[in-house]
Design brief:
The complex is a heterodimer of chains A (about 650) and B (about 350). With about 650 residues, chain A is mainly alpha-helical. Chain A has 19 helices and five strands. In chain B, helix 2 packs antiparallel against helix 3 and helix 5 packs across helix 8. Classes of the chains: A mainly alpha (about 650), B alpha+beta (about 350). Chains A and B meet through helix 4, helix 11, helix 12, helix 13 and helix 14 of A and helix 2, helix 3 and strand 7 of B.
């Protein structure tokens, strides 16, 4: 491969006219079989599937934790768990669901889908992609190892100081949480950078930014937000770790520190993060729902803009988590108004989805049921958020079960339900087989009924004053019946999730063959085979509309230009994909893509060793981890001929 | 409803039944500061219920407006609907939503202004310090001889606004009396203030609502609103030292208490002057033990002292190293603290 390879004008052709093209591409892009390939692969599809499977494993773990403590709360004064056990369980549950499930599962879907949606052969930074996954799984193991050893985080996922300080929380529990979160932050940050670069540079020629699927908008927005938000929380956890281990006092009021500093840093991250773990899921609905309404989404541009607007406003509302901290009312009132007004862009989505159904013709698939029911759950979670946005009302609502209801309608309603719908929608693309629709109905209705029976009563127990995070409660408070119903409902909901998993496992082997485009969908991922080949597309498609696969069927004028899916840039001189301009997606340059490599997994493991050394105070282990990470980084960035990074071999 | 002073007696009866069934509810206000918030809460709750109902109806209508398609066999190409139409939905829907949201903001700001400070000057200031897991209550007075400390039960004069200074001793706690107003945190390193007013005499439950460690669940308190004269009498009585008893078990218990309990607990006018645990002067006038964990009766008192970790596992109070005899003596002594 030569440097001048970058400068060539790529040939245009099609697989039909080039016998042997697909075989050659297959050889260039395929992952080596066996354990070596498993650790080295940079294929976004494999990484995406791993992300989804790992996130589901954490969903199960977090779910089991809640099923245990819901038993304790089923009636008053129950003593199944000690307070310390209860505290670790509710902390692990929140931490797992918010950080190890909700974010990563969307990253997984986006990882798998983005290059297919955008008409590229991989993500822009494939090795970074692998690194992002490996660090995520290492951070998850790091945190669960602590839990297994009895040192799980125990101060809630929000980890307020001073309770998190060494004086009140002497064990290593909080140290594990702090370092685990910093580790996970690296994964999220590098993953976010990858999505932003991919969005800006790897869209198929012709896919100007007004033709990009909404899922891509959602993930782009979430990723851009993460790049700004993660530093705040990583810094906060680092300062806390210093306070606990190096004798600093950033958060210690007795020596001039500030307890509220933690809350500001945490929620400056925490609130944008909530949007980051729902916007891509809303994007899934915006792309998936119209397919089952047999028409394009109503108000594409407004929905895309609303996505971005939500995120921008989302950076200006963090203080609504701190309404009771005694900040001056005047400054609180600004955040209160912002927290109410942020509902405006959400309304755009709701009315766009309903209008899409209204002006379409619904097809009652399981995916449709999940997407359509999501609209109601989204609305319930939205209005309870609107109520808490009103400052005087929130002074009453905050830290009651009303907020627990709100967060679950948001995270289950706007994340889990779209993800379940997305599983039914994209499983055929990922595996080549359909999920069973009959089991799907049972799956949907069990989840929907179980969820609402379980979580709706929490609104009421909140209004009746039940505080959050109590390991037990007294009789005679008016909460007994509601809590029993909540526990029963949560078990029904768990059965629903189990049915989804059963459907996935059994259909993976025995599902009906799907074909390339089982739902007659309009976007590029359905233009390739199911499952897609390692190189995604034999030629890079050229796009002329938002719905390349529906062209000619939407009543548009015949004169309109058509997308070209079978003929396009060949790019078969090694691993290559096309770089395009940021706004108009005009062909710009050839991108050489890196081959499989062990450097990402080794870097992730080295960093984990470093963090393990730090948390256990084993100096030599930390140094060994740091040295290994440094050496691996050098190996990673060493110039490679196949990427044209060495000048000497111009004509090799 | 508490927010409407003119409501008839039957409504009052309903409210008191509701309050008895759910003592921490905040849907029935019982004071000047609570009432506007109750009205606003019902307002935004009504808007919320209406929005969910409207959206659900629209969604249902959209789904069942025309016969849908039951299923889609893989690979079938169902016909497509024209891409036109629907933009007005977004325009109208967002327009109406934005209008309602703006009104909500205005109402919110109006309530904020109303509850910011009491109409009349505060009758007194009480300093609350949150500890893991109990409440220290200090009555401030310009006359140092009238200041005193108690714990977990806060008496106030009914019908008069009372100001609170809130201090966090160790970790963050939150001070909440739902019938009278929302929460304010007690944060180490800063002093927050709030005020409450109880329209009528009564007992109003309170609870810590910021997660503060293993016994966060057992960190309750009560606000007891008394008629003005009773309140003054109560204060006067609190200032008195306990009457020395010469009766056998109580006097022995006095000594045992000083030995085993006095370095953490205080009883005014005695050598017991500890500050790590709740002040126990006039313990017998309190309704509950261990920050609302147990009703204050003789059996519970003995049970709790014998093994605090059973009723309140994780409590800072260790199992005291005392004999059964000493326990009985201490109980007899505590019974004199009225």
């Amino acid at each position: 491969m030569s440097v001048s390879d970058y400068e060539r004008v790529p040939e245009i052709g099609s697989a039909v006219l080039r016998p042997g093209l697909t075989d050659r591409l297959e050889r260039m892009w395929e992952t080596r079989p066996g354990i070596r390939g498993w650790f080295a692969t940079v294929d976004h599809k494999r990484i995406g599937i791993r992300y989804i499977v790992t996130a589901f494993a954490f969903l199960i773990a977090g779910g089991l934790e809640s099923l245990i403590f819901r038993l304790q709360l089923a009636g008053p004064n129950l003593r199944l768990l000690t307070p310390e056990q209860y505290d670790q369980l509710f902390t692990m549950h929140g931490m797992t669901m918010i950080f190890l499930y909700a974010g990563p599962v969307l990253t997984g879907f986006s990882n798998y889908l983005w290059p297919l949606l955008l008409g590229a052969r991989d993500m822009a930074l494939p090795r970074i992609n692998a690194l992002s996954y490996w660090i995520y799984v290492c951070a998850g193991i790091f945190l669960y190892a602590a839990f297994a050893a009895g040192f799980g985080p125990n101060d809630g996922w929000f980890n307020y100081v001073p309770y998190a300080a060494r004086a009140y929380n002497g064990g290593p529990n909080v140290d594990f949480y702090a370092l685990g979160m910093i580790l996970l932050g690296i994964s999220t940050t590098v993953g976010a950078v990858n999505f932003v670069v991919t969005f800006l540079r790897l869209r198929a020629p012709g896919m100007s930014i007004d033709r990009v699927p909404i899922l891509a908008w959602g993930t782009l927005t979430a990723s851009a937000a993460n790049i700004f938000a993660i530093p705040a929380v990583s810094l906060a956890f680092f300062l806390l770790w210093l306070d606990r281990n190096a004798g600093t006092h950033f958060f210690d009021a007795t020596t001039g520190g500030e307890a509220l500093l933690w809350q500001h840093l945490f929620w400056m991250f925490g609130h944008p993060w909530v949007y980051a773990i729902v916007l891509p899921a809303m994007g899934m609905v915006s792309d998936g729902l119209p397919v089952f309404c047999r028409r394009p989404l109503v108000g594409y541009s407004m929905v895309a803009l609303a996505t971005v607007a939500t995120m921008v406003l989302g950076f200006g509302v963090w203080v609504h988590h701190m309404f009771a901290t005694g900040l001056p009312s005047v400054s609180l009132s600004f955040f209160s108004a912002a927290s109410i007004i942020i509902a405006v862009p959400s309304a755009v989505g709701v009315f766009a989805w309903i209008a899409t159904i209204w002006y379409g013709r619904p097809v009652f698939t399981t995916a449709f049921l999940f997407f359509a029911s999501f609209i109601v759950l989204f609305t319930v979670g939205g209005v309870s958020g609107y109520m808490t946005g009103s400052l005087p009302v929130d002074w009453q609502l905050t830290d009651t079960y009303f907020i627990v209801a709100h967060i679950h309608y948001v995270l289950i309603g706007i994340n889990v339900f779209p993800v379940a719908g997305a599983a039914y929608f994209w499983f055929p693309k990922i595996t080549g087989r359909m999920l069973d629709e009959r089991l799907g109905r049972w799956n949907f209705w069990t989840m929907f009924v179980g969820f609402n029976v379980g979580f709706f009563p929490m609104h009421l127990s909140g209004l009746l004053g039940m505080p959050r995070r109590v390991y037990t409660y007294a009789d005679g408070m008016g909460w007994n019946g509601l809590n029993l119903i909540t526990t029963l409902g949560s078990y029904v909901f768990a059965v629903g999730v189990l049915l989804l998993i059963i459907n996935i496992v059994s259909s993976y082997r025995r599902g009906r063959p799907a074909g390339d485009n089982p739902w007659d969908s309009p976007t590029l991922e359905w233009a390739t085979t199911s499952p897609p080949p390692p190189y995604n597309f034999a030629v890079i498609p050229t796009v002329a509309s938002r719905h390349p696969l529906w062209e000619g069927r939407l009543g548009e004028p015949d004169t309109q230009q058509r997308s070209s899916l079978k003929a396009g840039f060949l790019l078969d001189h090694g691993r290559e994909t096309l770089g395009t301009t940021a706004l108009e997606a005009e062909p710009d340059l050839i991108l050489k893509m890196p081959a499989d490599s062990y450097t990402p997994v080794i870097l992730a493991m080295s960093l984990t060793i470093l963090f393990t050394g730090l948390v256990l105070h084993i100096g030599w282990l930390a140094v060994a981890g740091a040295l290994a990470a440094a050496a691996d980084t050098i190996a990673w960035t060493w110039p490679e001929r196949s990427l044209g990074q060495t000048a000497g071999a111009a004509d090799a | 409803m508490g927010g409407m002073p003119d409501a008839g007696p039957s409504v009052d009866t309903l409210i008191s039944v509701f309050d008895a069934a759910a003592p921490l509810n905040f849907l029935s206000g019982h004071g000047d500061r609570a009432d506007p918030v109750v009205a606003l809460t019902f307002g935004v709750l009504l808007v919320s219920v209406a929005v969910v109902a409207i959206i659900t109806l629209l969604l249902g209508a959209a789904i069942w407006r025309r016969p849908g398609i039951a299923a889609q066999p893989p690979g079938t190409r169902l016909s497509l609907e024209p891409a036109a139409g629907g933009q007005r939905w977004i325009g109208i829907g967002v327009g109406v939503s934005a209008f309602v949201l703006l009104l909500s903001v205005l109402w919110t700001m109006q309530v904020l202004a109303t509850v910011a400070s009491p109409a009349a000057p505060a009758a007194l200031t009480i300093e609350i310090t949150g500890h893991q897991w109990w409440w220290q209550v200090r009555y401030l007075s310009d006359d140092p001889a009238r200041a005193f400390v108690t714990a977990n039960e806060i008496s106030i004069p009914a019908g008069r606004p009372v100001r609170f200074r809130l201090i966090g001793a160790d970790v963050i706690h939150s001070f909440w009396v739902p019938a009278l107003f929302g929460k304010t945190d007690l944060i180490p390193g800063q002093i927050n203030t709030t005020w409450l007013e109880a329209r009528r005499p009564g007992v109003y439950s309170g609870q810590c609502t910021e997660y503060c460690g293993v016994e966060h669940a057992h960190m309750g308190f009560s606000v007891i609103a008394l008629p003005e004269q009773e309140f003054t009498a109560w204060w006067d009585r609190q200032l008195r030292s306990p009457a020395e008893s010469d009766a056998a078990p109580a006097s022995a218990g006095n000594i045992a208490f000083t030995t085993h309990c006095g370095s953490c607990h205080a009883v005014r006018g005695t050598p017991s002057a500890g500050i790590l645990g709740p002040d126990l002067s006039h313990l017998m006038t309190r309704r509950t033990l261990a920050a609302g964990t147990l009703p204050n009766d003789s059996a519970n008192l003995v049970r709790f002292i014998a093994d605090p970790q059973a009723a309140k596992p994780g409590s800072m109070m260790p199992r005291p190293d005392i004999s059964a005899r000493e326990l009985a003596d201490i109980r007899a002594y505590l019974a004199t603290l009225n």
